[in-house]
Amino acid sequence: xxxxxxxxxxxxxxxxxxxxxxxxxxxxxxxxxxxxxxxxxxxxxxxxxxxxxxxxxxxxxxxxxxxxxxxx
Length: 72
Prior knowledge:
Helix content: 25-40%
Strand content: 5-15%
């Protein structure tokens, strides 16, 4: 009898945890993904311009708006 009670309780808890973790993994809103998060220009001469392109992808389900960028 104890096995049945414990087994049933375990099964119910397992089902509840499985359902809640499934909901947490759904994408809600924008999600920004950067292929590289930093760039090292190494050594450059003073006054020499530097140019680098970062690729930004939106893997979310809403439009991604980039409103402000702060160079390092």
